[in-house]
Amino acid sequence: MLVSIAAAGCAGESATDYKPTSTVREVMRSIVDPSSDALWDSVEIVATVEGTVHKMPKSDEEWAVLRRSAVTLVEAGNLLLIPGRLVARPGEPAGDPRSDLNPEEIDTKRRQAPGAWTLRAHRLQDAAAESLKAIDAKDVTALLNAGETLDAACESCHRDYWYRVQ
Hints:
single chain, two-stranded antiparallel sheet, mainly alpha, globular, 6% strand
């Protein structure tokens, strides 16, 4: 009897009932930005007076850290698509109102063209998946090139949903 009552209490819930607790801004600052930075900062060529320094992942541990960032970034695209997630908390201003859209304007754009928002999130996922493929192959050149793809995906979204002036 107790089992059937417990099962009946859960019957209304489903795997599609989302409960977003963070805003898009928080997802970006806490997940997307640090994961992207880890990928972008993993390969560098720095010229100094003493000579040229090539920074790249060398150990299995360094590659594993990068892999976690890439997987996180791929999944962040799904977080951005959860229904009901606001860009920012009510009343939060734009970062710089002279150059940035305010959160209400961004939310309006997302509601008016949900397919465009979905496309941007999928581009983020595709770019991160390209990084993941390079990481799994331990291919530094491909990782560097994937960083350019990731930058293009981010800037494409920012142009449409963040910057006030194109």
